[in-house]
Amino acid sequence: MKKTLIGYARCSTDKQDLSAQRLALVELGVHENLIYTDHGLTGTNRKRPGLDQAIAAVRRGDTLVVPKLDRLARSVPDARAIADQLEIKGVKLALGASVYDPIDPMGKMFFNILATFSEFESDLIRMRTREGMAIARIKGRLRGKQPKLSEKQQKELGRMHETGEYSISDLAEVFAVSRPTIYRTLKRIQTV
Fold first, then answer.
1. DSSP-derived 3-state class of residue 163
2. Residue 6: count of CB within 10 angstroms of its CB
């Protein structure tokens, strides 16, 4: 029975590129047409169609190849669930060049240790991001999403609305924004 390498790559945002991960998988021996991907999905989102397809594609004796563990899972429970699926199917997991056999106790232990470190790293990144955002907010650099209309446009929109001559749809057309934007702007004007 021929053993097959099935690859999986994932990036969290649509702005990221999968090229480096694809290249790494090809260099690890995975054929280009056996690489499954998820683009714009975080590791915490368990609904990853590309991963589901990759797991469905592997057969007993095959190896699922992932460039790094954080591309596969961001939490220990998720990594464990994936490892359990692979164990049931009789499939090995390769993280880069290192192959872990989920049936072997040592392979299982090393995989769990790696998953723990991956989750720890993810938690540290989240914590640093929250701290950075809090500091930026204190310094007035993090203001959130800015209104689509300038203050002058908002005042004009309010004046036009008060005349009663313009419907919400008319105002949306005049200012080239959506109706929900008009409603938000009017609400903002009324609370000021």
1. helix
2. 24
- Which of 77, 62, 66, 16 lies closest to 41, judged by CA? 16
| Beta-bridge partner residues of 10 | 38
Please classify residue 90 by burial: count the beta carbons closer than 10 Å to its beta carbon, then call 0-12 exposed, 13-18 middle and 19+ buried: middle
**What are 96-131's pLDDT values in tens digits?**
888 877 777 887 787 778 778 777 877 888 888 888
Q: Are 44 and 72 within 8 A, CB to CB?
A: no
User: DSSP labels for 52-97?
Assistant: HHHHHH--TT-EEEESSHHHH-SSHHHHHHHHHHHHHHT-EEEETT
Neighbours of 31 (CB within 10 A): 12
Higher pLDDT, 32 or 108: 32
Closest to 87 (Cα-Cα) out of 55, 118, 65: 55
Q: Is 176 left (phi over 0), alpha (psi -120 to 50) or beta?
A: left
Distance, CA of 23 to CA of 37 (rounded, Å): 13
Q: Which residues does residue 9 pair with via DSSP β-bridges, in sequence order? A: 37
Token digits for 44? 């915490």
> Which residues are catalytically annotated?
12
Instruction: Name the 3-class secondary structure at 181.
Output: helix
DSSP 120: H
Give pTM, 2 decimals. Answer: 0.60
